Amino acid sequence: MLAEIYEQPRALRETIERFVEQGRIFCTALGAIQADLQNCEKLIIAASGSSRHAGLAGEIQIEELCGLPVDVEYASEYAYRPSGTSPGTLVMVISQSGESADAIAALREARRRGAATLGVTNAPDSTIAREASATLLTRATPELAVPATKSFTTQLAVLFLFALRMAGEWDRMDSRAAAAHLGRLGAIPGHLEDLLDAWSAEALAAAQRFAGSKTFLCIGRGVHYAIAREGALKLKEISYSHAEGYPAGELLHGPNALLGEKSVVVALATRDAADADSVNRYERTLAVLEYVKAHRGRALVIASEKDDRARALGDCTLFVPGAPELLLPLLEVVPLQLFAYHFGVLHGCDVDHPRNLVKAVTT
After folding, report:
1. What is the H or E stretch that residue 318 is in?
2. For the stretch 41-60, what's the b/e string if a residue is b when 16 or more beta carbons lie within 10 angstroms of its beta carbon?
3. What are the structural domains, with CATH classification, of the chain?
4. Given CA atoms 250, 151, 8, 343 in this order, what sign does their dihedral have?
5. What single DSSP character describes residue 113?
6. Distance (Å, whole) CA 338 – CA 1
7. For 173-275, where are the alpha helices, taking DSSP H only?
8. Helices 175-209 and 8-19: crossing angle, nearest 10°?
9. For the segment 311-326, what is each residue's pLDDT rounded down to a tens digit?
10. 207-221: per-residue pLDDT in tens?
11. Beta pairing partners, 216
């Protein structure tokens, strides 16, 4: 798992290079559904586990950059209820392995309902890659540890690129703005390379600080909620801890009863200083952290670099470099992966092969 966390800069760089050619996004990969993209009125994302969390982040990226309405479904639920799959609906199925039984069932049900389908997977020879109308293959290369790390961040990158492509299809963004977004995305792998060692050391120190904790309440607003969910899932999977992900404001609507010596609030409190909405969400998240501190709760905070206000509200703080709001998830999820890794190892867990888990749920 640790090796694959460290492979993420390479995986992201190769995924971006695979799909961006002279400023053009998905030059040939979406040719089979080009007409469907032009006529698309709604996107349904069906996925499970970490892939669904990537879809939740992608929902906000796509809606904010191009205005296309997005629904994110559990793959295990999609085939068993009406979903409003009407003409003009594109169904995207995300699966690291491409062999998840629930994802395959969702894909086949979408086809039965007459929808064009788009697969996002890391496995070129998988069922989803073969059966989807079009497929976007990430470049994570085989992921051997059961917990998703590099497959998750490459999915995030592909979804961001899809948002940019659809913004072009819908005339919501000109080529100059798209190039600026691509430049900022292209800078992410370098940031990760520069910070992985420092983050790992800081995450180990945080794991040691909170070693006796039994409950983790992971919170974030907007696109960061998806990463809070993913951070909680990593802790569940590899340390067998009770961990839940919430929109930050929801902490005060019941989960705050769990604040105490054995619990930790993991708060995503990053911000894009150039984005007024991002700053507003950040301020509201700090207000929740002030509540946690006033009630003697403990907090691990993921914050933007040089943010002394966030540092003052956390027992431990890990900093990420500045980035646009919709790209911050690619940075902030990595310290959470490292924290979960070190916390699991500290408690003697087999983080590569956690109990009861398999890489692909095929039944």
Report:
1. strand 316-320
2. ebbbbbbbbbbbbbbbbbbb
3. 2-173 (3.40.50.10490), 188-346 (3.40.50.10490)
4. positive
5. T
6. 9
7. 175-209, 223-239
8. 160
9. 999 999 999 999 999 9
10. 999 999 999 999 999
11. 243, 264
